[in-house]
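Could you help me review a protein record that somebody else here produced? Do not assume that whoever made the record got everything right. The record follows directly below this note.
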Amino acid sequence: MSVNYKDKYEMVIGLEVHAQLKTNTKIFGREGCEFGRDPNTETGPVTLAFPGVLPVLNKNCVNMGILAGLALHSTIAKRCKFDRKQYFYPDLPKGYQISQYDEPICLGGYVQISNKKIGITRAHLEEDAGKLVHAGAAGLYGSSYSLVDLNRAGTPLLEIVSEPDMRSSQEAREYVENLRNILKYVGVCDGNLEEGSMRADANISIRPIGESKFGTRAEIKNVNSFRSLVHALEYEFVRQAEIIEEGGKVVQETRLWDDATGTTNSMRGKEDAHDYRYFPEPDLMPLEISQEWIDEVKSKMPELPDEKMARYQSIGLSEYDASVLVNQIDMALYFDKLIDLKADAKTASNFLMGEVAAFLKEEKISIEDSKLTPENFVKLLELLKKGTISNNIAKSLIIDILKTGEDANALVEKKGLSVISDESSILPIVQKIIQSNPEQVSAYKGGKDKLFGFFVGQAMKETKGRANPQMLNKLLKQELDK
């Protein structure tokens, strides 16, 4: 697959993103839905589809659906309903899924990426199925087998269906990244792809460049990372192009992405809506959503990523710095606390993206799990601003505080790290260094100006980095020019 077909064909991509809503209980029952519990411990009569049990809609799921829809610029339906989607899998005890078909909770909307808006067709509420755990040939009785874990069955999902507006794998990646950020900022989904709380199915077709008619699409499942999404789309683009180049026809089907082999493999023929035999869910009344309800949810809308980006740039951050912070919600919320405490925006962001980010990555913790409180961080920045400590000392101290949580002022006092700024303390050190290095002094006076840095380094070493740089440079120049 080394031939480049991108001069001849273009991708047409639409995405179906399933976002698990951050509720404590399932969408139609009281069972919990915490990730990582022992298999089949978060089940109950509704999840297990006991005879005679009835679904009861979790109102918090509706609130989250409304909130997400507003953040995505969607129209919130004043009336929506639930439907039965008929299909049988071993991890779906009822034999059908409660979803929304022709009257979803959200219609229209868009997600802004760097160069355009990606349209949203709809977003609807539904329940998740369970999970099959497959074992290989070395299993029981010497043959392969599958186990069923129903903890996930009934977990609330918001499925967000995009328009086929993306034309490259990178656009698809940016769309999912921006969508995840929006959902995390409004607090409806934690966006953890590895835990399956956000999953993307990609629909991709190709067509000759300049053609307006869509080709036959394939749906790709089992994409659980941004990297996998890009690789799966690139592979599928070439696979479809090769079929067409060889005179074949692309068939509509569902394919699985195999991360180990870097290939997509046929799973089943793609079902159409009529295959699911949708009909209105008889055990749930249609949902009426008043404008008052929408307004109440809207009043709780937090600042969205685009708004935060604009605000950060207005207080002095570059577009790059702002985007780095905004794309890490915990870091952005921490940065907001620093700004509320009157910290200098640029200095604070430099430390966050530099020393702090490196420490957190190494320790594999979040900023919230560190011992660096915003109040103590601001104390350190104030010491730097006043000239009490140097920038290098501040970089060293912030690591100590991240580990111990010790008060910045007390730490500077205990370690004797305050900057030496008075001339009477620095001058003798400068004179001593000049007297101890006659050869370098002679070379400097002979025109080797770069040796000035040598003298600065020696003085900093002598003062353990505490000498005021401006004062030190002034006195060195004064003594060397004599």
